[in-house]
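Handout, section B. The chain below has 233 residues.
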Amino acid sequence: MGRALLFWAIIFGTGFAYFGKNLDLRFLSNNKIKQQSKQDNLINDYDPSKDEQFSKEERDYFKEVAKKSEFTSDTAIRRWNDDIRIYVVGEKVDYLMVELDKIIGELNEIIQPIDLKIVNQKSKANLTIYLTGSDEYVEVEPIAKKYVGSNWGLFVIQPNVSFIESATVFVNMEECFQIQGQKHLLREELTQALGLRNDSYDYPESIFYSNWSETTEYTELDRSLIDMLYNHW
């Protein structure tokens, strides 16, 4: 099982093989200003889904997406406490690398305590993106073997207590040929690897929508969930 034995839990989320643009102004002031230290972002019993500063819609959606996982019964809230250092393996086509830069920029605007960045050495990464075929991904994540046949996008996170220590993200470049679809999968799986692990049928424009879509923007509600997961501890 290799890496699967290193931690007590491995959580999956998918982009589903069956394949909104509202800007929330409250996030604009966060651009590159990290007001919370990692020391402040520690484990406690805070639960954003019970915090009434958020709307009922936000709390209910957070409960659906952040406190559930598609392939396990795990209900813990999981997030990163260190900067996410991303390395890309496989088909580094220009349009996907540009899209990755865009996604990272948007996430860094929203998330205060940590930064996401691309690194040029795999040994420096704690999150690796595989833009490959399924065989290459299964070599790295054997536990994904039973899921790659029905999913063009996957992620695996490896947590320690409530914090995510490392992760992999997979976009099946041999099965998904549409550029818009590849961009969608990259955004969905990377976002879910932050700890927003479940899909939902509630909002068709959401990046977490369970049916196939080609959404390549976060809705205002999506942005709220990322903010809730990281900025209020």
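Note. The mean pLDDT is 84. Compare this with the example in section A.
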